Amino acid sequence: MKVVLDINNFWSPSGGGVRHYHLKKMQYYQKKQNEFKLVFLMQDDCNRTEEVSPTLTIEHVKAFKVPGKWWEYRFVYSANKITPYIDKYNADIMEVGSPYVLPAAVRRACEKSKSKPALTGFWHADFPVTYIYRPFKKISSFLAKRLETVAWAYARHQFKNYKGIQVSCKEVMQRMNAHGLQNLQWLPLGVESDIFTQDKRDELLVKELKDGEPNRLTMFFPHRSCNEKGLSLLLDAYPVICEKLGLEPKLVFAGTGNKIHLVERAVKKYKHIKYIGFVKSKEEMAKWTASCEIGFALSGWETFGFSILEGMASGQCLISANTGAAAEHVGESGGGIVLNEMTPAALAAAVCEIAKSKDEMRAMGAKGRAYAEKFSWDACFERQREFYRGLVN
Hints:
single chain, alpha/beta, 8-stranded mixed sheet, 6-stranded parallel sheet, 15 helices, 16 strands, about 45% helix, about 20% strand
């Protein structure tokens, strides 16, 4: 049996999309007996081995905790921490999910190891654009472009001698290729379309949200409360939407984040803004998603966007950013409106456009559902196994 060692400094027990990917991957290997065994190196506060099934082992690796109130990240950055696990399992493949420090550390670990696994990455964050170019552009476009160039050079160095990098967004993949990152493999992820479905619509909840007005629009924002996800954009657009519609829509926020105080302030200011906190249960999230008519995908930084597909699978009409996976999903599906510009006025206009026709809203929701049904986790990991076979052969 071939062994895949998987490690990712973006893993966090309370994380979002990256955590979800790893949980679904472990679930797949736990249940599916195949030619590959998955060993996930999970950062933790101690070292221990968890044998889950013949094809899944979790190695808890003691790692440095990154300071911060809003996350639980722990970083592995030393090759000496990694080499023993490569030797222990005689690894055939190593997958690295974060681009900072770790890819080069894994490469050095493999050089020290008796085993020589094939190296592959997973581009979970488009960091040269997301965390370098866009923030610094607010200061200086010239500086932002220079720093982005340095970031791409850093990425090429980190993934030097890697046999391939998996990417879940076509736009991001094209950008990576243009900046010299090679052997790219498109790997669309999945959505639980059996959980996120219109059947989870709760009529009692809908009635509560409508609050005596059957024509009241219901909207849902199930994202981290930060400006990266478009929080301030939506809050700034809300009073404009209220004025244009003449009937204050219900806006429900779920999740937490470093800007949650902005949500709490809005709840006190507006009668029809509601905050439901962090939703742990998938079933509960599916109920809220299916019971709201419009969903928002306002981050242009997404490399796949699970919540986007969950909204589509639930029959929501989506309003999306004009770049990244959000624009890709909504544009290709016809399941909503892609914003021309990221301004409160444009967002308010899009909401009002959708609100004009219930029939058109339902038609967009049906297109989104049909599109989301194409993405299953089994299909994702079967495609990934084909990729792994190519690496070991």
